[in-house]
């Protein structure tokens, strides 16, 4: 199935586009073996063979599983925001560790303590 004359060079999207067109044209049926081959620039190429089948019906997830996943994503977002804010405050408060000021020396000391703590934590 070739579709370059209609769409031009679609690069990596060529195979899914050709598959959709073949399905719409009725040329692909469950149980058939299909070979996909893609050629790139130079000697770049890839191929795969699959056995086409009907979609499998999956039961919907229970509400508590969906709620748990959503809560986990919300928690990860909040944690990321908190860490980003803490890094900004830390960097703004103490400045660069190389600074010859008291704040710079304090930051270098805190960083060294953190590295020591993390190296001991990894050994446990």
Structural class: mainly alpha
Mass-distribution shape: elongated
Q: Largest sheet, order of strands side by side?
A: 1-2
Number of strands: 2
**H/E topology pattern:** HHEEHH
pLDDT average, as an integer? 82
**Number of helical stretches of at least 4 residues:** 4
- Radius of gyration, whole Å: 28 Å
Low-confidence stretches: none
Q: What fraction, in percent, of the residue positions are helical?
A: 55-70%
Beta-strand percent range: 5-15%
Kindly, what is the distance between the CA atoms of the first and last residues, rounded to a whole number of angstroms?
58 Å
Domain module tally: 2
Largest sheet: 2 strands, antiparallel
Descriptive report:
The chain has four helices and two strands; from the N terminus they run ααββαα. It has 124 residues and is mostly helical. The model has no long low-confidence stretch (mean pLDDT 82). It folds into two domains: 4-51, no CATH class; 63-123. A two-stranded antiparallel sheet has the order 1-2. The protein has helices spanning 4-7, 14-24, 63-94, 102-123; strands at residues 33-39, 45-51. The N and C termini lie far apart (58 Å).
